[in-house]
Amino acid sequence: MNAAPFAIQARSLRREHGEQQTLVRAVDEIDLDVPTGQTLAVTGPSGCGKSTLLHLLGGLERPTGGALWLAGRRVDGLSERALARLRRRTVGFVFQAFHLVEELSARQNVELPALLAGASPRAARHRAGELLDRVGLTHRSRHLPAALSGGERQRVAIARALANAPLVVLADEPTGNLDSAAARDVLRLFEELRQDGQTLVIVTHDDRVAATADRLVSMRDGAFVDDVWLAGAPAGPLAALGGLATGTPGGPTGLDG
Amino acid sequence: MGRLLLVGRLIRTDLRHWPLLAVLFVVVVGVATGTLAVGMTLGDTTRADYAATRAATNGPDLMVLTADQLPAERTALRSVARRPEVTGQVGPYRLLRGATLAAHGHRMTATVEGRGTAPSAVDRPLVTAGRWLRPGGAVVERGFATALHLRVGDRITLAGRTFPVVGIAVTTATGVYPGAGLDVGPNDYAGLVWLTDADLRPLSRPELRPGYAMGLTLADPDVKAFQNAIRPSLRANPDVRINTRGRITTEDASNRLLADSESVLQIGGWLLAVAGLAGLVGLATLRTDQQLRRAGRLKATGATPGLIGTVLLAQYLLLALAAAAAGLLAARLAVSTIGHPSESLLRAPVPIGPGTAVPVCALALLVALLTSAGPAIRVARTPTVTAMAGTAGRELTHPAGLTGVVGALPVPLMLGLRLAARRLRRAVLTAAGIAAVAAVIAGMLCWHAQPAASAALTTRTEHTYQALLAITGALVALAALDAVVVVWSTALDARRTLAVARAFGATPGQVTAGLVLAPLPAAAVGAAVGMPIGLGLYWLVSGARMVATPPTWWLLAAGAAIVAGVAALGAIPARLDARRPVAPILDAETR
Ligand SMILES: Nc1ncnc2c1ncn2[C@@H]1O[C@H](COP(=O)(O)OP(=O)(O)O)[C@@H](O)[C@H]1O
Ligand SMILES: [Mg+2]
Description:
The complex is a heterodimer of chains A (257) and B (591). Chain A has 257 residues and is an alpha/beta fold. Chain A has helices spanning 50-57, 80-90, 106-116, 121-134, 150-161, 180-195, 207-212, and strands at 6-17, 24-35, 39-43, 65-70, 73-74, 91-94, 168-172, 199-203, 215-220, 223-229. Chain A is built from seven helices and ten strands. In chain A, helix 4 packs across helix 5 (150-161). Among the domains of chain B are: 1-50 and 270-394, no CATH class; 62-220, no CATH class. The two termini of chain B are 37 Å apart. Chain B has a six-stranded mixed beta barrel. Chain B is of the alpha+beta class and 591 residues long. The interface between A and B is medium-sized, with 38 and 30 residues. The site of magnesium ion has 2 residues of chain A, from helix 1.
């Protein structure tokens, strides 16, 4: 998929909300390396900073401090516009509340990222057809989101996230709004993605989701408190520390612009 | 290509989801641009009509008129006609001035010309109904005939004798009716009638100031030079009293019929745009939530702020072009019916040229930009994560200090002032819209304050009055729309604040009163600013003819009526909104 060994690398990543008395450190000096192809699950109590971390990793929010690399490219200082361009190709988001564009049909939603990335209408349409087929919604492609069930909406959202074959898919409680049957469909899709070698970061409360991950990170008050590699543990002495800091000092070599 | 498709797709869904907004935009901006276009075209219509009529009748460059019917005067006319610069002539022929014409029970003043039965080379009146003169018959100038409802076959009594109307014709030897009489000085409402010279002679009496007239065409278009050249020889003989009237003067007299209407409509077009703006901007903000939500979702999938802004701006530009096109089309239709104010001239087609289309499109684009720039920037700038929730950019603070002051006031007043202070731009637009309405209303009052107009101005001012009336009607309708929309958008905008207020015990009545009060300070300021502007514009348009200003109490009463109207209209959406249950609103906001 991608030649870079790490899809995501973060050093001392920090994000604060509010000022002075109301200041909240939603993400507090986090270091993180996500190898390409890994499925990482992030868990933790509500308000511990999981969503904020995910937004930072995907460039939806900019960090207050620290450094972030996507596919070896430093991205924490990029402008809003450059981040948007980066997201098109590199990141696919899946949200708890789906966040489909309500006015566009399922197929048009899936076409969105490809069209934004400058694909021809034909190519975008073709790709959307493939993806809707993959998530089993070909027969729903002309429906507006409002006419779809929660599970169907989330499958459309997953298809949309995959439209540009992104480096990493970031999912924020993707089953949080779904009943268990719909959640199972969505989980099956994530499992397929994992087996295809798609890099995945999933924020979840759901044990079943956590169980399918290669690695499980627990957060509290904006920081990691646990980091368990369930599969493909990193080699070397740092593994003994639970993989908390695998980077060399000064950031990834040769990639720091 | 793909991105273009996407922008097109999003614009289409927007227009489909907010048809009311799109339709209102096109209607409001269409009316404003149409009015402006009509105003800018009117000058051309009379000019074109005049040119067409002049060409069709071989109109004279110069009319030469004698005060009496002395042989010396006739000789003088002949010598003028013999000058080398003269290329064609009609006359000298006899004419009577101030004759009484009775028809259908009306009595009017007419100038009567004694002409030949054969068409003349110069000033060959174009017969539009019936036929040209025959002995015993009269031909009536078309503008005059229309005013008298005369048709071929009707009978008229002229200076005591009865003639059948055998024809109706147009000419450019005189100005358009009224004022068509070939006389010196104001003779409004005098029409023109042609008889054969043989029929005219028995009518001649000293009270009818018999004279000679002659029409000339000249080699040199510089009529003024010719007038100056002949003056010394005409002045040499004290018995000879001769006046000349050049083509320019006649054309100018025709054009002036619509001169004030032109200004009124042009100013009116801009006032309409100003008044429409408050309502359009209010409507545009109604959908900010939805736009924000969508922008957040688009950005999460990789849309740049630029693309988000483009979608919004582009759809308003499209609407603006549609509105400008609608306005120009409406103007074309309107001009063909109201642009030819006088039956005295043939109707020439008037194409609306780039000179009109460019300012009209500019006005439409300006409105589009002012309507969409605020939301476009806000939507494009809101951070993605906040935007996805769809309620960002609303946490507004009031000017420091105000909160403390309003705390001591009665609840509705407090709510009203807080709401008013929240959105400065809305207040400014409301004030501007109300000022536009107040300005035309002040214009109307000015109109009625003038002493009865002198006869010479009546027709011109009648056209102006109709234009003024139309503008006032359109502006009042727009202002009514504004008043409803502004309160409606305030209610939506502030629904959380108001829901909290109600949760803490404010009654629906107090909330309604607060919403109704909110736009009133801006409305009062608008009325106070607009009235003097209206007086100023009236003075500008009417020039020296503004001899009286309306009594102050008229202005005050009108201002109070405007503010009361805003309050009454605002009560409609306010009452509807205040009745909505509180809990779902608070719920929706916390999601
Ligand atoms: N826009 C914001 N403004 C202020 N505080 C925020 C904002 N977004 C998140 N927070 C705060 O940051 C912390 C982490 O939030 P979040 O990342 O949403 O947690 P989680 O997703 O783990 O529930 C919380 O305390 C939350 O209140
Ligand atoms: Mg969260």
